[in-house]
Write a structure and sequence with these properties.
This is Secretion/DNA translocation related TadE-like protein. InterPro entries: Rv3654c-like (IPR021202). By secondary structure, the protein is α+β, with helices and mostly antiparallel strands. The protein has one domain. It contains 2 helices and 3 strands. The protein has helices spanning 2-50, 57-67, and strands spanning 71-78, 81-90, 93-101. The protein has a 3-stranded antiparallel sheet. The longest helix has 49 residues, at 2-50.
Length: 105
C-alpha cells in the first residue's frame, strides 16, 4: 500500500511539473511571435517611410501586425526610423513588444 501511494505521488508530481513546463514553453513561443510581429511591423513602417512601399507607414505596420494576431499600440517615425510597439494576449495576460527599424547608420 505504501508503495502504491509513493508511485501515485511521484506521478502526480510529474504531471504538475509537466503542465508547468508546457505553460512556460508556450509563453516563450508567444513572446517570440510577438517580437516577430513587432520587428516585421517596424520594418514595414520603415520601408513605407523610405518610399520602398506605397502607403502610410503606421497603417502598413498595423496591417503587418494583424497578420500575426497582434495590434499596434504605438507607432512613431523619426525621419526614416520607425519605432513600433505591438500588443497581444497569451492566455489571459496582455503582453507587448517594441522594435525599431530604419536605414543603417
Amino acid at each position: 500500500m505504501a508503495g502504491t501511494l509513493s508511485v501515485l505521488g511521484i506521478v502526480a508530481g510529474a504531471a504538475v511539473l509537466s503542465v508547468g513546463l508546457v505553460t512556460a514553453g508556450s509563453a516563450a513561443v508567444a513572446g517570440q511571435r510577438l517580437a516577430s510581429a513587432a520587428d516585421s511591423a517596424a520594418l514595414a513602417a520603415a520601408d513605407t517611410a523610405s518610399g520602398a512601399e506605397i502607403g502610410v507607414p503606421c497603417d502598413r505596420a498595423a496591417e503587418v501586425a494583424a497578420t500575426f494576431g497582434a495590434a499596434v499600440s504605438s507607432c512613431a517615425l523619426d525621419g526614416l526610423i520607425a519605432t513600433v510597439s505591438v500588443t497581444g494576449t497569451f492566455l489571459r495576460w496582455q503582453t507587448s513588444a517594441t522594435a525599431r527599424a530604419g536605414p543603417p547608420p
